Amino acid sequence: MKEKLVLIGNGMAGVRALEELFKHNISDDKGSDQYDITVIGAEPHPNYNRIMLSPVLAGEQTIDDIILNSLEWYEENNIELVTGDAATEISRVKKAVITESGKEFPYDRLLIATGSNPFIIPIPGADKEGVLGFRDIHDVDTMVQASKDYKKAVVIGGGLLGLEAANGLMKQGMDVTVVHLLDSLMERQLDKPASALLKASLEERGMKFLMEASSAEILGDKRVTSVKFADGSEVDADLVVMAVGIRPNIELAQKAGIHCERGIVVNDTMQTFDPVVYSVGECVQHRNECYGLVAPLFEQAKVAANHLARVGSTRYIGSMTSTKLKVTGIDLFSAGEFNEEEGDEILQMQDVASGVYKKLVLKDNVIKGAVMFGDTMDGTWYFSLMRDGTNIADFRKTILFGQHDLGDAGHGDDTRVMSLPDDAEICGCNGVSKGDIVQAISKNGLFTLDEVRAHTKASSSCGSCTGLVESIIASTVGEGYEAAPSKKPMCACTDHSHDEVIDAIKEHELKTISAVREFMEWKTPDGCAACRPALNYYLLARWPEEYQDDLQSRFINERAHGNIQKDGTYSVVPRMFGGLVKPDELRAIADVCDKFKVPEMKVTGGQRIDLFGIKKEDLPAMWKDLSDAGFVSGHAYGKAMRTVKTCAGKTWCRFGTQNSTGLGVKLEELTWGSWMQHKYKLAVSGCPRNCAEATIKDFGVVCVDSGYELHIGGNGGIKVRVTDYLCKVDTEEEVLEYCAAFTQKYREEAHYLERTAPWVERVGLTYVKECVVDDEKERKALAERFKISQKYSQIDPWKARADGENANEFTQLKIAG
Amino acid sequence: MSDWTEVVALEEIPQLGSRVIKTDTMNIAIFRTAGDEVFAMKDECPHKQGPLSQGIVHGTSVTCPLHNWKIDLASGEALGPDEGCTNVFPVKVENGVVFIAL
After folding, report:
1. Hey, are the CB atoms on A551 and B21 less than 8 Å from each other?
2. A412 pLDDT more than 70
């Protein structure tokens, strides 16, 4: 017998909690497998996206577009939906909710999500016809209707909601005046310069403003005709929208004796003072905060669901919020403390002609707040730096130019997301346009990057457009955008982050994948395609001497030791140390190509030869021939050390200062076979002309007359990143030691699938230097651990398979008939 | 559907892994889960014909190695927001031997 769960309030927070609850189902049933659910809503609609009311008012979307859960959804999930019959009483004695029509709904658990009410300023005449708030579909309908019959509108309140309402009414053809009590707009989100830019840009569109005006009375007979101010002046109005704020709707809870202050008081598990009564949304007061933005409400919903489902493993600890204004064509972003206090520092950039303004408030090199106008592309980046409390000292000089100042594939200078046309291609890998993304967001009610990735594939391949996609989500759903949480779970199988998993493996000496899953309470029996390869790698990197590599947790390339191609054939790349090769070796490669009818060969960028179109069943035989000729695997298919690129060096080149090829061979002999979080490339250039392009490699060496410059964290791929200069050393032995130490530091600490470039940016160059350069003992210990690990990884996987290891992987089955 | 054909001993398919059966008309992927359930389907992802046999098996689904579509082993249907379906074939295990009905 299921228990009864009643939800009061058919809005975004409450229904989100139900959706989160369903995710905890153990069975495949639709709905909840623990509760019979009743939803009681005062409005006669299914759950809709309240934050999209502004675009509806502006005529950019319709009501149908913003429905989040259709009536069918309630039916499918066996939810009893009561609409248009408001709950009027909670009887905690009877444990039942009573509605306007006198119906009683008994509950075992109750979830209150009654949201908030617009605050109507109690001035004379506020009850006249034509005076309303901006809160629900009914208000929007009334405004749209009024815009057909009347001309002049006054919006009281120059905050986010007021400006969106004013913009919508203007789009409906009305003559709109915004009345604001203070001297600058959106003063809770913007500093004065940004606020002035916003005002100018709205004025350009035809919006009028009355600043520092205190409304005193609404005049008119039955319907409003004008608004009178404290100084005695008047402005004509046929419609007055009050958008001065919201108040948590706590009436029901208060009447039922549930402890309320400004909102319904809840603890970190979203429980009210009555333990069977939970509450989420705008009606809630948590740690003395009431939230009016959607992202925090969704976090609350997740926690409430976790406890309703009796998992009981999460807590809500409050949210940091950011704001975007949903006025098409105006890019504006704000987060945190944007007005500096004593002791804070300001980074500021202003380009008046192009209407761009950016300001970051710092304390001790950590971002406290951000305001941006005109170019908000990097808002989500600043916000995550702020939430993570990242020390930005290492890139303070360039931070205002954004995350992408070092070049970016795909979109060049197009940073003004809102002004891009619908057909602008955002994701170049999967051919997804801005219009596709916006449509998917509105149609499917998406809020997170992961959801957009799943539905559109945008940003799901190379990821270089992630910033743009995040920006589109943020500007489409406004403050509802759920920025990726600072503590990001590894995958849907767990709530633990990569760092927590890495630490636990070390601290608790977990030595098998199943031990990790058990210890860290994985939610799925055998993980998924995302976490299994990661766990396999972490264990391999931590326990090289003991861990038994789990082939079924490796991506096919690493299981088959070849690179799977789009037609299901494989490519084979033999290793050529330092790019050097001998005639016999080339002959052997030519013979192999003839023997196995290789359709295409190519010289790679890593100075070796790629053989394409090999059938999987031919691989072991081909490897045998290559192995006999002295080749080992080039690991061109793996998250592993790939190649060491070299230039000619001083043996031949008239500019060469050191033996770059010889050093390249030594480095490759040191590092080959090592498994990594991602691909890992090295290069050695013989002089500062840098022909081996060492300054876009994970570890690069630039030889100079007096020694060797070491560079780290470069990337020549998706997002070009020039290396950071690590240090200069005098001898080849030192180069090898520093290389081993840096490589091992990365291997032990970076997240799976994180290349050195983002890793160095995340942990900071200073930290890497401290461990690898400044601390000799640490460097030597790291290098030693790398060498131990290499003992076990420098066993050529090709030879092993040519000798019959894991033969099942390469043989096909035949059946009779 | 009584034409059961013997394929291979169950232990010749790795747990959480697969083998490929080559027939005259197509390749068939045969999967074994952690719980020793066996499933068979055409070795083609409904998305871009990727070889599902080469994917990572988890629970009762497989993730295609080309573009990470997740396919339900029992029904052959794409999971999540993706839509598409690949042919599945009945299989059974008797005395440690896998049989398929084509």
Report:
1. no
2. no
